[in-house]
TrEMBL record:
Protein's membrane topology: Multi-pass membrane protein
GO cellular component: plasma membrane
Descriptive protein name: NCS1 family nucleobase:cation symporter-1
Spans through the membrane: 50-71, 77-97, 130-151, 171-189, 201-219, 239-260, 281-303, 323-343, 364-382, 388-414, 435-456, 482-501
Membership in a protein family: Belongs to the purine-cytosine permease (2.A.39) family.
Organism (species): Microlunatus elymi
InterPro entries xref list: NCS1 (IPR012681), Pur-cyt_permease (IPR001248), Uracil/uridine/allantoin_perm (IPR045225)
Keywords: Membrane, Transmembrane, Transmembrane helix
Cited CDD domains: SLC-NCS1sbd_YbbW-like (cd11485)
Length: 510
């Protein structure tokens, strides 16, 4: 008779835990190769890997559009940079706190959620993250496709730029969108190591392009004066602060997706110190610096063309120098391709796999993400800066703030960073709770979400018309007061309520 190999788990002196799943869990319906803990020998990402990851993810078309969008809603360059810098410092906190579990245990985000929401309940937070990532995948792909259209327009000339329309857009833009989509699907198929190597050079390259563009536009307008002297339409009084907080929540929401699913990346880290330093150096510094470049270039565009062009590919496309256009758009589009795969495909592929471990693997999950990214119609989310920031970002930011609050409260204050990894893959185990669901965590999260976004209301344009899908008075009018602070409200309410429920009620165990 052959003895079965049992699951083993060993904690190393540096605090990391090396867990190898044995035969006792090999047939579990909650295990596959992508969801299993990463063995110690495969944890090879260094400090530079994480710094490069964030350099690559920060330097892309969506970041540029985000920064330029603040100019479009009436801020000047200084106000826009203030919002972005403060937001990046704030979002770094939950990023590092949630990253810890990935590095310590080698587990991805959806498996981490099993220890909090239950083995089945983890799908609540995982699929929510996945569907939002699909939206982001579509947005980044649309922006990248717009860049491809600009480049091909310079190559093919008037017949490309003046093509007929299909469903409200030029058919050449739809073709460009499809080209960019296919390129990403090919990169997904190559896997995580290819993504890491791609990020190592794509991020620095696009930063160089932005610097060259800034020099070019400063030369064109005759110095920095026209860039920094563009006046604020809001001033520094009540009108500015009325826009400041919703904008700040939108900036936090921009990376709130990654602040949840960062274990998907830190599970490959060589050490806690490496991922913390890499992220601490990579996220707030490079995101803010690139945003400064984007804001100044957008302000220069106002000085040159008399209007705010917040879509970066359209702004670059207006330049007279063909070399600048081709070099700039191609490089920024390549970097966008890299960040889109890293930030918006890797994590949802794990999330979809978590829902159906024996059916969906990383590659299949990536294809699902790509298809849903089209279905969500990203061109609608990019119709104007108000919709992009105050509707799309603010709404899902409030939802994710609640999830982040419960995750951090559970891991750092309830479990005190101790997870029984094998139980995350076991039916009727320690994290099965009630039928696979941890009711306290779900209740706290849902209440936090309602408080954060229940008062969601659409901003009004200059003519008094609402610019988004929400009722002007909010879904639940008395919660309207919380809407401008949605991410913070969700985080504080859900996290605080979860700690209270954990003190008052005992968990039900199988």
């Amino acid at each position: 008779m052959v003895d079965t190999v049992q699951t083993r788990s060993e904690e190393l002196p540096d605090g990391r835990v090396d867990t190898i799943l044995g035969d006792d869990l090999a047939q579990s319906q909650y295990v596959n190769d992508d969801l299993a803990p990463v063995p110690l020998k495969r944890r090879t990402w260094s400090t530079y890997s994480y710094a490069a990851l964030w350099i690559g993810m920060s330097h892309n078309l969506a970041t540029w559009a985000l920064a330029a969008g603040l100019i479009a809603v009436g801020m000047n360059w200084a106000q826009a940079i203030l919002v972005i810098a403060v937001a990046n410092v704030i979002v770094l906190v939950p990023m590092l706190l949630n990253a810890h579990a990935g590095t310590k245990y080698g587990i991805p985000y959806p498996v981490f959620l099993r220890s909090i929401y239950g083995v089945r309940g983890a799908n609540f937070g995982a699929l929510l993250r996945a569907f939002i990532a699909c939206g982001w995948f579509g947005i980044q792909t649309w922006l990248g496709g717009s860049g491809v259209a600009v480049v091909l327009g310079r190559v093919f000339g008037d017949w490309w730029d003046n093509a007929g329309t299909v469903a409200g857009e030029k058919w050449t833009l739809w073709v460009s969108f499809a080209i960019f989509w296919v390129l990403q699907m090919l990169l997904i198929w190559k896997g995580m190591d290819t993504i890491r190597r791609f990020e190592n050079w794509a991020g620095p390259a696009v930063l160089a392009v932005a610097i060259v563009m800034l020099i070019w536009i400063v030369t064109k307008v005759g110095g920095f004066g026209p860039l920094i002297n563009q006046p604020s339409k809001l001033g520094w009084g009540a009108e500015f602060w009325k826009v400041f907080f919703p904008s700040l929540m939108g900036m936090i929401a921009f990376w709130s997706t990654m602040s949840l699913s960062i274990p998907d990346f830190t599970r490959f880290s060589k050490s806690q110190k490496g991922q913390m330093i890499g992220q601490g150096l990579g996220l707030p510094t490079t995101m803010t610096f690139f945003s400064v470049l984007a804001v100044l270039i957008t302000s220069g565009g106002v000085a040159l063309y008399g209007e705010v062009i917040w879509d970066p590919t359209q702004l670059i496309g207006k330049f007279d120098n063909t070399f600048v256009v081709l070099f700039g758009v191609v490089t920024v589009a390549v970097a966008t391709l890299a960040v889109n795969v890293a930030a918006n495909v890797v994590s949802p592929s794990y999330d979809f796999s978590n829902a159906f471990p024996k059916i969906i693997n990383r590659r299949t999950g990536g294809i699902i993400t790509g298809i849903l990214g089209i279905v969500i119609m990203p061109w609608r989310l990019l119709e104007n800066a108000n919709t992009y920031i105050f509707v799309w970002l603010d709404f899902y930011g409030g939802l994710f703030g609640a999830v982040a609050g419960v995750m951090i409260a559970d891991y750092w204050f309830i479990k005190r960073r101790r997870i029984e990894v094998a139980e995350c893959y076991r039916r009727d185990g320690h994290y099965w709770f009630t039928g696979g669901w941890h009711v306290k965590a779900v209740v706290a999260t849902v209440i936090g979400m309602i408080m954060a976004v229940g008062g969601a209301n659409s901003p009004l344009d200059a003519q008094g018309n609402k610019t988004g899908p929400f009722p002007v008075d909010g879904f639940i009018p008395f919660l309207k007061v919380f809407w401008p602070y949605n991410w913070i409200v969700g985080f504080v309410v859900a996290g605080g309520l979860y700690l209270l429920l954990s003190r008052l009620l005992r968990d039900r165990r199988p």
